[in-house]
């Protein structure tokens, strides 16, 4: 099966790593540019000093209550956890078969990596990280980042 997959990759000159790397590499300049722009816009004196939003008294300062970053992190975590709600019966059966194979391999003493669990754990960690980062950055960034990541 792996040999056939590699033959198809070679035949069609494609590689899954390239497909996984292109989106972040193309979006990273936009993210860095918008972060730099918002950093310059939030320096004093700023038009954001007089603006407020929900718990933010000023968009150029961090949220003193951390309510918006916590809400953003909780929404992100709920999104990660709710991905299991919409799994089809066939996918659940495949996952169960995979779990059995992994249990058998571990019983034989083999080390088994489970990419799905690793990714889900990383996304959970990133959800918490968003709370920590959102608590220290100016409010305008939290609002813009919420828009980019939730839209």
What descriptive keywords fit this protein?
mainly alpha, 6 helices, elongated
Give the SSE layout.
Elements: H1 2-12, H2 16-41, H3 67-81, H4 89-107, H5 115-136, H6 139-150
Helix pairs in contact: 3-5, 3-6
The chain-level mean pLDDT equals 78
Helical content band: 55-70%
So what's the overall shape? elongated
Pick out the low-confidence regions: none
SS content category = mainly alpha
First-residue to last-residue Cα separation: 38 Å
* Succession of helices and strands: HHHHHH
Main sheet specs: none
Describe it:
This protein is mainly α and 151 residues long. Helix content is 70%, strand content 0%. It is built from six helices and no strands. Helix 3 (67-81) packs antiparallel against helix 5 (115-136) and helix 3 (67-81) packs parallel to helix 6. The chain is elongated and about 60 Å long.
Concise account of the structure shown:
The chain has six helices and no strands. By secondary structure, it is mostly helical.
